[in-house]
């Protein structure tokens, strides 16, 4: 049984006990049995070999922010990264951003925490930092440290990127079970960065669209489909080594590369499409999420199998086939996207879609070929539009209190 | 102890048992004791004398939508209200929007539910409808049914309203503990309304900023303050009769009036203000939320009390004093607002603030005088800007399956 079904809190956040039978949407009446809730309030460790927020079981809420660095002084940037790291180590453990906090400091000073998360638990907050290609220009002496894998993405057919909500020198992904906790963290990092960085763009998301652990159920995107069944998961040790973590002896060893894409969905058009066409486009059954021609969500798709009409169950251009590792030189991604609704678009429609995020060892051989295949052939393109793009080198984890984000990069 | 502290789910949503000691933000380690979770998955009744979503203990997530009616046919509008009511009765009980659902209908037809809430529980979803002044123009023959209390709001000093995100013929407030459930409901109402209504604007919110029940703790706004301590609450029978529910024999009897205001906060400026100034502006202590000069949040403010310096503890223009019923002819409001972050503003700042909503018997004697006093004198105005405004007559509840939203209005 999916624990997510009980809470909308992310399956891994909740350990259910004796709560069978609660999973149907039509439940009325009986209050559920007692439940144990652990990860919801328990903090995620901040220090480690890798950054948290990547293989950490995907929390249900996102606040993603991209900053432009506005100082041109390398020392100020390094000092900011030091201050941010100290704040992140506190915030992720459910503490206030600074030592005196929102209400404990001298009355004549501005508080060193903004206060809206006072009383709220850690909510599994993770803060994950990444460095964009633009940071490696001539401002900070980093040009020769730009990793080859941080190559600019090519232009993909059909994309309509808006520069103002794309790119950025530094990104921070804040994920938590409570949006107020994620927002609080981003807002305090922006506050600390005043005069050194400026918010370029930011994105809120809800309803994680991927699982990153086998303990989590697969959630649904705003097209109503399960769409992350074959995601890389934290239990996949070998696959993570091969496809997720950067290698070599440079500053990125133990890090990974993040691609973000804001994918607007024309949900009004999708909603008028027949069930049969929707299922054919995805290559999955809508209710169970099973590959067409199979029975259950996790049954592997059989791309060769043909139905009674002699045609393949899964169409040659079905999304599940085009995106599958077997169609892309065994390229795997660790997806960690979120649904979004940004109000409406002024044209009578909701402004809604998927904020896609994927971590990988090398976008040149992973995201790029997969997305190129999708951009050229995926019939989903009739219903989606890529409007923002980001690419970031996410360094390895912070080892201890003497370490900080980007230390090896600036060493 | 606040149950909200455990989950960020809204205190009323969660009944905690034996979980003492979890309330601090610095908790690490021990998983909490068993917890009983009821309202999170239990549906809120749809039928009743009053609409749900008003005195219902405030859920933690909001999707608010304002529609323009695009048909000019009265019969089509009435039929839409009928269809919406039937869908709302289903959705609020955790069912799909239509009888065949997202994946159960004929393959050649578009599904009558969009599917992203399949497997999710009701999450205390409420759907609350309201009719704006513009619905009472000459399109639908309703001009002589416009209630006197639905008088256009005056222009308030300092407001900067954006017409495109203000007003609207019909509003729906969707509140739930899971944003995906609230978004799903609004999206399906928009889908059902295709060709008859068009989304004018919509707003997502998180972190309810008011309590509507004494069982709920007072949450914090994005200025870090508790700011709804003296709200009308569902337990206040006499006050609700006097200040909330419309009277008389017309179609609004048992209904109420909703004012919405999107209040942008310049949080970056606020965050550089001293703790003493922040507390003086609100008239409350930041950590406990106590009125200045008192000890605890629910201690009544003593506006006459003076400190050792001979000045009143609570300044003459403190927010708590200006907004208090004693300063406004005993005007009470049932506030039901939410925090929002809409990404960033393109100028290096988060686009964040409060989506204020208040229900009342007559805005002319309740919201208007309170807001006029605040607009003229509140020192908070230095840090906020009203950018959107809405006014809606919310009819009484739907009595049973033979009734529908607005039946008495169109009778």
UniProtKB/TrEMBL annotation, chains A, B:
Query: Function of this protein?
Result: Involved in the recovery of exogenous heme iron. Extracts iron from heme while preserving the protoporphyrin ring intact.
Whichever gene encodes this chain, its name is: efeB
Q: Which organism is it from?
A: Nonomuraea indica
UniProt protein name = Deferrochelatase
Q: Does the keyword Signal apply?
A: yes
Which family, according to the similarity comment? Belongs to the DyP-type peroxidase family.
Keywords associated with the record: Heme, Iron, Lyase, Metal-binding, Oxidoreductase, Peroxidase, Signal
Q: Where is the Dyp-type peroxidase C-terminal domain?
A: 218-398
Could you say which cofactors this protein requires? heme b
Q: What is its EC number?
A: 1.11.1.-
Q: Where in the cell is it found?
A: Cell envelope
Q: Matching SUPFAM superfamilies, A to Z?
A: Dimeric alpha+beta barrel
Q: Paste the cofactor note.
A: Binds 1 heme b (iron(II)-protoporphyrin IX) group non-covalently per subunit.
Q: What class of enzyme is it?
A: oxidoreductase
Query: From which domain of life does this come?
Result: Bacteria
Q: According to its UniProt record, which reaction does this protein catalyse?
A: heme b + 2 H(+) = protoporphyrin IX + Fe(2+)
Q: Which residues form the Dyp-type peroxidase N-terminal domain?
A: 51-206
């Amino acid at each position: 049984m999916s624990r997510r079904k009980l809470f909308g809190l992310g399956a891994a956040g909740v350990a259910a006990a004796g709560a069978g039978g609660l999973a149907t949407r039509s439940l009325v009446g009986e209050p559920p049995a007692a439940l144990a809730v652990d990860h919801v309030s328990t903090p995620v460790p901040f220090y480690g070999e890798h950054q948290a927020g990547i293989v950490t079981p995907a929390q249900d809420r996102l606040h993603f922010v991209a900053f432009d660095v506005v100082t041109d002084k390398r020392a100020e940037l390094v000092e900011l990264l030091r201050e941010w790291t100290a704040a992140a180590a506190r915030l992720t453990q459910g503490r206030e951003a600074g030592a005196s906090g929102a209400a404990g400091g001298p009355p004549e000073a501005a508080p060193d925490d903004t206060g809206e998360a006072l009383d709220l638990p850690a909510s599994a907050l993770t803060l994950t930092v990444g460095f964009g290609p633009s940071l490696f220009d001539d401002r900070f002496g980093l040009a020769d440290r730009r990793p080859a894998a941080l190559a600019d993405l090519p232009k993909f057919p059909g994309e309509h990127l808006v520069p103002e909500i794309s790119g950025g020198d530094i990104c921070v992904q804040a994920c938590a079970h409570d949006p107020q906790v994620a927002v609080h963290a981003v807002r305090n990092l922006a506050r600390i960065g005043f005069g050194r960085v400026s918010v370029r763009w930011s994105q809120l998301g809800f309803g994680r669209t991927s699982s990153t652990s086998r303990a989590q159920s697969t959630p649904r995107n705003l097209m109503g489909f399960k769409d992350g069944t074959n995601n890389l998961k934290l239990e996949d040790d070998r696959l993570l080594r091969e496809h997720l973590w950067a290698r070599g002896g440079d500053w990125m060893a133990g890090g990974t590369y993040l691609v973000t894409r804001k994918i607007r969905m024309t949900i009004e058009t999708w909603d008028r499409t027949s069930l049969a066409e929707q299922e054919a486009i995805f290559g999955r059954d809508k209710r169970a999420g099973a590959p067409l021609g199979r029975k259950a969500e996790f049954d592997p798709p059989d791309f060769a199998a043909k139905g009674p009409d002699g045609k393949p169950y899964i169409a040659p251009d079905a999304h599940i086939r085009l995106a599958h590792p077997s169609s892309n030189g065994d390229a795997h991604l660790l997806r960690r996207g979120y649904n979004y609704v940004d109000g409406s678009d002024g044209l009578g429609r909701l402004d809604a879609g998927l904020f896609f995020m994927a971590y990988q060892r090398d976008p040149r051989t992973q995201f790029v070929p997969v997305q190129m295949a999708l951009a050229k052939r995926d019939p989903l393109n009739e219903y989606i539009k890529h409007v923002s793009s980001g690419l970031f080198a996410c360094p390895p984890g912070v080892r201890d209190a003497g370490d900080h984000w980007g230390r090896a990069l600036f060493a």
